[in-house]
Amino acid sequence: MKVLVSGASNGIGLAVCKKFLDLGHEVVGIDIAPASLAHANYTHFIADVRDALPDVDNVNIVVTAAGVQLPDSETINVNLKGTINVVEKYAFQSGIKSVVTIASSSGRNGAEFPMYSASKGGVIAYTKNVALRLAKYGATANSVSPGGVKTSVNAPVMDDPKLWQAVLDESLLGKWAEPEEIADFVYFLSVVNKSMTGEDLLIDNGEILKSNFIWK
Fold first, then answer.
1. Which of 54, 91, 184, 187 is least buried, going by the fewest C-beta atoms within 10 A?
2. Domain boundaries, position 121
3. Does some domain include residue 212?
4. Does the model's pTM come out above 0.90?
5. Considering only CA atoms, which of 169, 166, 197, 170 is closest in space to residue 106?
6. Is the pLDDT score of 17 beyond 90?
C-alpha cells in the first residue's frame, strides 16, 4: 500500500516510515527537515504542514506525526491545524483505507503546556469527525495517544537525571515507550485493524492510572 507520513524525518514519524518500508510498503514522507533515510520505496517532500502541501496521488494510508511541543499558539497551528491540513488533503478519496493521527495522553489529562494539551485534545476530537466522514469509503480513522516517548523533543527531561527519574516514577511500569513501539501500534491500526474506528488508543505505560493515594 501507499503510505503518507507527516513528520517523517524524526521521532515517531521516522519510526513509522521505517516500519512500513520494512514490511514492503511504499512510503511518502513530508517534513520541514530533509529525509533521514534512503530507500528505493521512499519519497520525501520538504514541506510545512501549515502551508501548501505537495500533490500525492493514490494514498491508501495517512499517518500524521508532525508536531511541536511549545508553550505558545504555534503549537495549535502545527499540531492541530497541520493535522487537519494533511488529512483533508490526502484522505478523502476512494483509495483510502485508514487514517492514524498521533495525539497525546496530554489530550486526555491536560498535563502539559496549555496549548499543547488543547492541540492534542483537538486532534482526538477531529479524528472522530474524520471517522464519521471516511466511513463511506469503508475506511477507518483512529488516533494514538502516547505518553512519554524517547524522542529528541523530550531531551530536556531525558538529559536531566533528576527530572528523568521523576517522570519515570509517574508511570506504573517505570519506563517510557520507544518510537518503534508506537510505530507498531500505528501499523496495527492502519493495516491489521478492520473494525475499530473513531477511537483513541492510549499508550502511556499506565501513567494515567497513577494515583499517589495517601492515607494515615
1. 54
2. 2-206
3. no
4. yes
5. 170
6. yes
